[in-house]
Amino acid sequence: MAISRFSVRRCLGWLGSGLLAVGLWGQLSVAEAARLALVIGNKDYLLSPLKNPVNDAVAMDKALRQLGFNVTLVRNLRRDDIGRTLETFTNRIQPGDDVVLFYAGHGLQVKGVNYLPAVDAVIKVEADVPLNSINLSQWLERLDESKAGVKLLLIDACRDNPYTRSFRSAQRGLAKLDAAPSGTLLHFATRPGSVAADGTGSNGLYTSYLLKHLSTPGVPVESMLKRVAADVRQSSQNDQQPWMEGALDGEFFFRPGSVTVASADPPPPTPAAPPTPTQTPAPPPAPAATAKPTASMSRVGGIQAGQTDRECIKDVCFSLVGIPAGRFQMGSPEQEAGRWEHEGPTRTVTVSGFWMGQHEVTQGLWRAVMGDGATQLMLSRCGDHCPVIGIGRGDAQEFAEALSKLTGKRYIVPSEAQWEYAARAGTTTRWSFGDEERHLGEYAWYADNSDKRLHPTGQKKPNPWGLYDVYGNAWEIVRDTWHDSYTDAPTDGSAWGASGLAVARGGSWDSVHQSTRSANRVRSLPLVMSLFTGLRIARLP
User: Fold this and answer.
1) What string of DSSP letters covers 376-424?
2) What is the pTM of this model?
3) Which DSSP state fits 266?
4) How confident is the model over 193-211, as a mean pLDDT?
5) Where are the alpha helices (DSSP H) in 279-374?
6) Residue 423, CA atoms < 13 Å, CB-side half-sphere
7) Which among 538, 428, 405 is positioned nearest to 476, based on CA atoms?
8) E strands, 211-307, in order
9) Which residues contact residue 55 at a Cβ distance below 8 angstroms, ignoring those fewer than 6 apart?
10) Helix (H, G, I), strand (E, B) or coil at 317
């Protein structure tokens, strides 16, 4: 089924609070495109926090997942994470992909340039804005360079914000955009220079109607957005007027269907109720012949570095990172400082693509899956965001089996090869950041900086593939049986044995720096390691 094309081009102008950029290029087959979305909700601002943006982002996350999108959800984007978040996401985009970006939060303009500030933005003068915000014009340029087939940016910003009070030339809302990439459709929550309502319910006014119409089958996106605009104008008594600029190079449907839309939009029918959100991503319940496939359906074995997915169990959510298929040298070379003989001999291992937990399994997630009494050695005083510890390989396997039953997906305890491959993230140095020990404290809680205690996950820098706490904090148990060397070890990434002494990787808060190296491995002795050993879960495609 090919997407139709037609030549339409308009001058692109205003950039207001709800921005939508859409472009289709080439004669693209639906089966060739992945559906990707980046969803950001900024609520907890240091100055003038908002009520609904995180609710908006979470609701959009669920709705887009049900429409077949692979979604990256970001709550309360911080300024130090702006560059990495946008770059990681855009690096995933392949030519022809369908891409949606949604933002809810404050928005402002400085000298005609539009910005979306981070929640920890410190803005006292106009010059502070670019250092604390997303630059929308640069964002559009980066998306255009990606050659995405469909580029959709929905920005529900311009809630009344306090930053402009100290600016010399304070103006409300966002500014007119001088130009936008061709084949781009822009849709705003309100007209240029106006303010969008944060909403009296659980969602902003614009987002609430966007959610209402998003999943209506058989309606092109331009027609769908006209229906959103009509509802917003009526609800606000014309105080808030969504704005559309630009044009499509072809038709795009959030949900394909058999409805035929004439050139002039008919009166909006009573929309179908949005699908009930679920905790696990699911493709839309549209017929297979017209439904748009997800990224994993679109590319066989197509897991890529930088992809993320999200799962929720009893309101406890966790993220997974895509680990691409590839080969690597497992083990340490003889000249590596701090090396042990049982880290060799090195060998080439081929690993199939899989998903790896972005963080170590936390105490909160363990309880959600296994129940409060599942283990007595979790050191609950550290809190639900700290790694679960005090578990053995049998406990870890029971957790993976229970999680699989709850989600209907194939969760496993990773093999040693899978763990080291993900930890190295394409590098060959002692750690993924290099050979210099002096940088270890930026990435790990270990003996030199941990204050002899466990820490919440995600406080240090991630490795190049987005995994946090790969080094230190808690040892991570793997599926293999301990062997004194890699002689005769498998080379296909599978686990080596399933009984006897287990293996743990990565080091802990009590480890010296040599023990945190990517290649280091230890016997997981139950009585010795119980206070230090946790796990990182993996998922098969």
Assistant:
1) S-S-GGG-TTSBP-S--HHHHHHHHHHHHHHHTS-EEPPPHHHHHHHHH
2) 0.49
3) P
4) 79
5) 295-298, 363-370
6) 33
7) 538
8) 243-246
9) 41, 202, 203
10) strand
Q: Beta-carbon neighbour count of residue 516 at 10 Å?
A: 28
* Structure tokens belonging to residue 89: 């996401």
Cα 355-358-361 angle, rounded to 5 deg: 100
Residue 186's nearest CA partner among 218, 221, 211, 148 is 221
What is the average pLDDT across 441-448? 96
| Distance (Å, whole) CA 138 – CA 150 | 18
**pLDDT at position 19, please?**
34
| pLDDT tens string 117-131 | 999 988 888 888 889
481-510: burial string, b at 16+ Cβ within 10 Å, e else: bbbeebeebbeebbbbeeeeebbbbbbbbb
Taking the C-alpha atoms of residue 280 and residue 408, their distance in angstroms, rounded to an integer, is 9
Residue 399 in tokens: 């957790």
Tell me whether residue 441 is exposed, middle or buried, using C-beta atoms within 10 angstroms of its C-beta: 0 to 12, 13 to 18, 19 or more: middle
Separation between Cα atoms, residue 481 and residue 96, nearest integer Å: 44
Q: Judge whether 331 and 344 are in contact, CB under 8 Å.
A: yes
61 contacts 71 by C-beta, under 8 angstroms? yes
Strand order in the sheet with 533-534: 521-524, 502-505, 475-481, 533-534
CA distance 514 to 511: 8
**pLDDT in the model for residue 160:** 52
Whole-angstrom Cα Rg for the chain: 25
Answer yes or no: are the C-beta atoms of 252 and 24 closer than 8 Å.
yes
Query: Of 474, 526, 539, whose CA–CA distance to 505 is shortest?
Result: 474
Tell me the CB-side half-sphere exposure of residue 208, using CA atoms within 13 A: 17
Give the count of beta carbons closer than 10 Å to the beta carbon of residue 276.
Answer: 7
270/73 Cα distance (integer angstroms): 30
Phi, psi of 145 (to 5 degrees): -65, -25
Whether 506 and 418 have beta carbons less than 8 Å apart is answered as no
